[in-house]
Amino acid sequence: MSVPLLDLKRQYEMIRDEVEREVLAVLRSGYYILGPNVKAFEAEAADFTGAKFAVGVNSGTDALRIALRAFGVGEGDEVITTAFSYFATCEIIDDVGATPVFADIEPKTFNIDAEDIRRKITPKTKAIIPVHIFGQMCDMGAVMAIAEEHGLAVIEDACQAIGAACPSGKAGSVGHAGAFSFFPSKNLGAVGDGGLITTNSQEVRDFAVSMRMHGTRNDRYRHETFGYNTRLDEIQAAVLKVKLRHLDDFNDKRRANAERYRLAFAGAGGIEPAHELEGYRHTYHQYTVRIEDGKRDDTLKHLQEKAIGCAVYYMVPLHRQPAYSGRYDELSLPETERACNEVLSLPIFPELTCDEQSAVIEAVQEGLTG
Ligand SMILES: Cc1ncc(COP(=O)(O)O)c(C=O)c1O
Predict the structure, then answer these.
(1) From 128's CA, which of 147, 152, 153, 231 has a CA 20 to 30 Å away?
(2) Residues with CB under 6 A from ligand 1
(3) Residues 296 and 360: beta-carbon distance below 8 Å
(4) What distance in angstroms lies between residue 267's CA and the mean position of ligand 1's atoms?
(5) Same domain, 130 and 31
(6) Which candidate, 187, 175, 94, 89, places its Cα nearest to that of 138?
(7) Domain limits at 360?
(8) 157 pLDDT exceeds 80?
(9) Is the peptide bond preceding residue 314 cis, with omega within 30 degrees of 0?
(10) Which of 134, 160, 230 best tests ligand 1's pocket when mutated (most atoms within 8 Å of CB)?
(11) Contact at 8 Å (CB) between 73 and 96?
């Protein structure tokens, strides 16, 4: 039996009538940009995340970029983040003219190690970007305490973690701003690109609203600052509004699948199941195990041969990306580098069937013993 890593068509079929009704209404309305759907979605997303404000933009990358600029991060500043993430996390730091400073990760959660953040602070540090990797939040209590002590802005990269929670609150509501991605494969996926900035600050919200449409204007014709064109469009907002109402259910299904994996892999040698920390709500954007003893690549190959969808997030840490060639040669992040050699992500999407999951488990077990 072949099993996909993700099958977006299954989810679409389940909510097709609702989505098509809403999208058709947009098409017929003639109102395509920053209209009633964006407004309604922003209100519902703010409510869902527990943040005071939410501003729709056209990607998670732009949400991060605008959030960094909202705190005046630029030339000469340092931003501490993780090297175990998607490239967008560090790309936008360079894009605003600042320098990424990478802290190592905690081995259990793959999330940034708060103690290493502390060690990496210099007089140039302006902000921290904790990434809630794979759908589990960072230890935001610890991150916020460090930030407060040193007067730093905290921008949550919650691109993979909508609906996740930690003892300090829900993803996107604890830091000074949060960034979400609605790339189609995300737990809340659009039918194209989309993103969201969340914040409890009126000032940050107003900055984001102006930035997504060419900066501040005195009136229709006089521009005072430079911004971007990065709006969430009405069709995406209409789809997201429908899907947001199902999100808790989708995330619960991912959690149930994760529990089945946990039970199947508990006690098996050579594999470490994903961990959910006590008091946290993991939303399993990815279900990522560790395969130890140098057997990850063989297991990956075995799964591929059996047509079982799987992927390595992340094979190359950010400080080893060719775009930085030479810049971080001296930097060693032992836990990040170990994770890159051991991780393997397995199918976890909400519509995965029990039979498919059994096939995945069986193939992983064969890979480990083979
Ligand atoms: C951790 C992380 N940060 C940032 C992004 C960028 O989001 P987008 O693809 O919507 O620009 C992504 C998504 O791919 C992500 O996974």
Answers:
(1) 231
(2) 59-61, 85-86, 88-89, 131, 157, 159-160, 181, 183, 193, 195
(3) no
(4) 34
(5) yes
(6) 175
(7) 247-369
(8) yes
(9) yes
(10) 160
(11) yes
